[in-house]
Amino acid sequence: MPDPDGPSSSSLFASSLLGEAMALRPVVLMAAEILRTPALQPRWESPARRYLEVAAQLFEKWDARGAWREVKEGGLWIQPPFGIDRATGRWTAEYAHRATGGFSHPDNKENEIALWLLAMFDATGQGVYRERAAQWFRLMRSRLKLREGGRYLVWNYWEPAGPWDYQPDGAPKHWVGVHPNGGYYRMDAAAMTAAFEHGVVFTREDIDRLAATNREFMWNHQLRPAKFQRIDGGRADPRWKDSPGLLWTELTPYDETLRQISLANHNPATWDGISATPWFVSRGAR
């Protein structure tokens, strides 16, 4: 089977937009909380504003590098085709093709970047961040496919977005299909839910279809232990035999059954539980 994650920039000496977005999002969320909490401002307002300045500079860096592309259905970020030549300290030759080369990030990575942009909008009020996120979410929504008479949704891990995603012979640079790791689709569902909560692109009908997909099609209909199959119903890959599908936790406020599944199976002593528990508490779960 081909590399399930597709082309990589690991051979380049280069920074990562995805890595920076994932590292910065909690920092931006923290900064926003500081700036709206008077009791924290005397000590922490100045550092919080510096964090937001750094985040804004990094957004501008990737924008200047040509990592953003607009397409008919919206827009998305691409993995640049260049890095630093450590022998010369200059860009590699591919820098000259930065406006046309590269590789579109898979959906889950685009969604992680979009979550950072939504956090930036919340923290700064600057519309460019919301609009960039909205352009991606419009493209994301266009990739959702209805199944079972419109009851459920399915989508691919990656799809070509423009000429840069094809080899010279016309073949796509990456396979198109459903990834066997269900964790990627939980990331997608979380981002689409966040977009809905921000009034961006996704509707309550979309949220209800996502919930129905997770609840009716993917779930084994056992409260404990709850198991989930792949979003397309395909065979579980041995590499991810325990996670062909997962509970889409962020949908639990919108579906009582998913909420009950979550509460029945939640374990705060796991890696997933460590990250989910504060979110549960903030939502009033008991």
Written description of the protein model:
The protein has 286 residues and is mainly alpha-helical. It has one domain (17-282). The protein is 45% helix and 8% strand. The protein contains eight helices and seven strands; from the N terminus they run ααβββββααββαααα. The strands form three sheets. It has a three-stranded antiparallel β-sheet, covered by helices on one side. Helix 1 packs antiparallel against helix 2. It starts with 16 loop residues before the first helix and ends with a helix. Mean pLDDT is 93; it is low at 1-6.
Biggest sheet layout? 3 strands, antiparallel
Alpha carbon gyration radius: 20 Å
What spatial order of strands do you see in the largest sheet?
1-2-5
Would you tell me the structural class of the helices and strands?
mainly alpha
Ends distance: 43 Å
Any idea how many domains? Answer: 1
pLDDT under 50 segments (min length 5)?
1-6
In total, how many beta strands? 7
Secondary structure tally, helices:
8
Work out the strand percent.
Answer: 5-15%
Task: Offer a concise description of the structure.
The chain is mainly alpha-helical. It has helices at 17-35, 41-64, 107-124, 127-143, 183-197, 204-218, 256-265, 271-282, and strands spanning 68-71, 74-79, 84-85, 90-91, 103-104, 145-147, 152-154.
